[in-house]
Amino acid sequence: MKRPSLTLLGVTALAVLAATVTPLASASTPASAATSTAVLSVSSTNDPGYPAGRQHAAVGRSVTVGVATLSRGITVVGPESKSGAGDGIRITVEPPQGKSLTVGRYGVDSRSQDPSLARAELVVGSVSQSFIGDVEVLDLAADAAGALTRFDVVFRNGTATPSYAFFGQLRFGQPGDTGAVPTATTIQYPDTPVGSVPVTTTETIVNTGSAPVTMGAAAVTSGTSGDFPITADTCSRTTLAAGAKCTFTIGFTPTKAGPRAGVVSIATGGVTRRISLAGSAPLGTTGITYRGDDYVSGGTTHAFPDGSFATVVGRSSSDGYAFVPTRPYGLDSGADTTRVEVVRYGGGPLQVGTFDTSEATGPAEGSTAKYGLSVSGSGRGCGSYTGRLTVSSFAVDSTGAVTSARLSWTLRCTFTPGTMTGSLSWRDRSDKTAPAAVTSLAIATASSTRTATWRASTSADAVGTVVRLVPGAGVGALPTSGLPVTSTGATSATLPALTSGRQYTLIAWSVDSSGNVGARTATSVKG
Prior knowledge:
The chain is mainly β. The strands form eight sheets. An eleven-stranded mixed sheet has the order 1-26-27-28-30-29-31-32-33-24-25, with no helix packed on it. Helix content is 0%, strand content 49%. It has strands spanning 7-8, 22-23, 38-44, 56-59, 64-69, 73-78, 89-94, 104-109, 119-124, 127-129, 132-142, 148-157, 166-172, 180-182, 186-188, 199-207, 213-214, 219-223, 230-231, 239-240, 245-252, 258-268, 271-281, 285-292, 302-305, 310-315, 321-326, 339-344, 353-358, 371-376, 385-396, 402-413, 419-428, 439-446, 449-455, 462-471, 483-488, 492-494, 503-512, 521-526. A hairpin with a 2-residue loop joins β22 and β23 (271-281).
């Protein structure tokens, strides 16, 4: 299956969270030579028939931590998905030029040469994957020489679509990674439409101990179970022998728009393992439909509704906009051959109104059209188009990325008979107003238990509050960042145990019935 030949829009570099890395003066061994456990989990939504589409999960000796310093960043090498597959994986995370790696969230765009941005590289076999997404360093510590003694990193490559995405976690030296060790303790999924085929990660639990471990049942213990279905479970209610492993799959198929969060728990002997889950579903309605007796339509209606498909927006070859429906795991190889390209000659966002159109690459000779439009699909295209385009709505953010659109058209291929009619929606919605922010966020301590309280949003359509505990100062954090506290209509929640001496930020966001997220309210917390 071919990847769509477009460049994703809407990914901008985010500020690095400023946080202090706690030196461990007693630790003098670099991470690559230490005896602490290394853990890797990498999931992919590419076609599993190809190396880029395979799951990688490993604990201990099969994971190699190479470079691991504050100044040079982290490189982790994982094993092949199966012996002889030739698809071993390497992940590198580097701080911005001249900076040290810190706890926090980095936006990454491999297309940019800006030295002030963090860098990330993901290589499957010998093929480097273009990295456009984010990296979040949840935990980090180093010795006096700057060699890392522990880290916990999650990443998402391809955040804007569930198709052609990678996401996973890298850990080293974490105190909980003993006994029956899960390969992922924090999972941040790519944006996935409501009703999508579940975007999955295979959770592997490896018994690194010398005695058998009795396993409990894997279950969603926080959040909505419908958002995070558990399937293919070989772990629950089994006995895991020393050195053995078991697996279960955790999917993400959001039931509502906006941020979604949950926790999967499973008992492993006397320890309950908790796996933090987070993702978002795009707001509004997205989809493409076209039909007609023209050459491209072929007398058939072609429909790509949201959920069944995810439409990606990119730049067209003539600096306009390209809309391409895709499907994860190569489930519909014909979907990503469909492409709607639209351009306003001279550049800039589309204006509301009805316009004559010509070629997407520029006006044909003698044409007075100010807009270009082309539609191709199922291996069919037309070298020359004329038509009429109606732009009902079109909005972009400060970076020029499309935030919502609604278009319709009548289109003719110049050299063949027939007419196509079609329409396109991109996150189209009537409610674009964020709810009022949460207020009065505070933390009270009683008998060693910390409880967060807040006043809910005063907006009439507010339905709940997302509260996250983010390591560091919290700059640039999203409602999927860090660790979950609650995501309900409540106005209080008990905080989990915090590591002594570490800095955290507690952040609350209001969410309305359409999935719009209000401005954040935050307060610092010391472990």
